[in-house]
Design a protein that fits this description.
The chain is built from 8 helices and 13 strands. Strand 2 and strand 3 form a beta hairpin. The radius of gyration is 17 Å and the shape is globular. The model has no long low-confidence stretch (mean pLDDT 94).
């Protein structure tokens, strides 16, 4: 199973709020966010970890180039206009095998992630999407589900059958790449539109609840994420 990290954004909000390091290298309790993800993925048996970063920040490229000497990382350097475009740029490296995709700023409990990956390895669904009922996002993506947690839709506003929001972690089969290419051909952007198209194309997606997932978008989120991880390890 392959794993992939989308880390091609500019991290402009963090920079505007005085955070000097580029987002992938922001440290949480002494460890860069991107290295933390890679090492978690390796502990889950990753065959390789595909990482896409932009070509605007040499510091990030230098850091990952050094990490590539130690770990099986496939590094792609390209500036893209959206996360979905970043996904497309690395999609050829994910063909033929189940994979897990996440953004670099998604912080979760490792033990919950391990159960999630194990569930996906044996799942018959086309995708297992990480979800949470913890809402601390400026523009959450709400998810409607059936009683057995099959996903019926992705929404910008909550509906009566929305129990969760997207956690930004996607476990998918290669079938999902067909939808991704169709989205690109039709000029769509944003990961939420890709997810909507998965449902429209009839793929069977199921939700997998996490107790809490934290996104690091602002300087204050760094403190929240560090406290969350410390509480997890206590």
């Amino acid at each position: 199973m392959n794993f992939a990290i989308i880390s091609a954004g500019e991290g402009s909000r963090l920079a505007q709020e005085g955070v000097a390091k580029p987002k992938p290298l922001v440290e949480l309790n002494g460890e860069a966010m991107i290295e933390r993800l890679v090492r978690i993925f390796m502990r889950q048996g990753a065959h390789r970890v595909v990482v896409i970063i932009n070509d605007l920040v040499p510091e990030t490229k230098e850091f990952l180039t050094r990490l590539c000497e130690e770990l099986p990382i496939e590094l792609v350097v390209k500036t893209t206009p959206s996360s979905m475009h970043s996904f497309y740029e690395i999609s050829h490296l994910l063909e033929g095998e189940r994979f897990c995709l996440t953004t670099v700023d998604t912080i979760f409990r490792e033990e919950e992630f391990a159960r999630y990956i194990q569930a996906f390895r044996t799942s018959e669904a086309d995708g297992l999407m990480a979800v949470t009922d913890y809402v601390d996002d400026e523009k959450p993506l709400y998810i409607s589900t059936t009683d057995d947690l099959s996903i019926t839709g992705f929404h910008d506003q909550p509906t009566p059958d929305c129990r969760y929001i997207s956690g930004g972690i996607y476990c998918l089969t290669p079938k999902a790449l067909e939808t991704l290419h169709r989205c690109m051909d039709e000029g769509l952007s944003r990961m939420r539109n890709f997810q909507r198209q998965l449902v429209a194309d009839g793929l069977h997606l199921k939700a997998w609840p996490f107790s809490k997932i934290v996104d690091v978008d602002h300087a204050g989120d760094i403190v929240k994420a560090e406290e969350f991880l410390r509480a997890t390890s206590d």
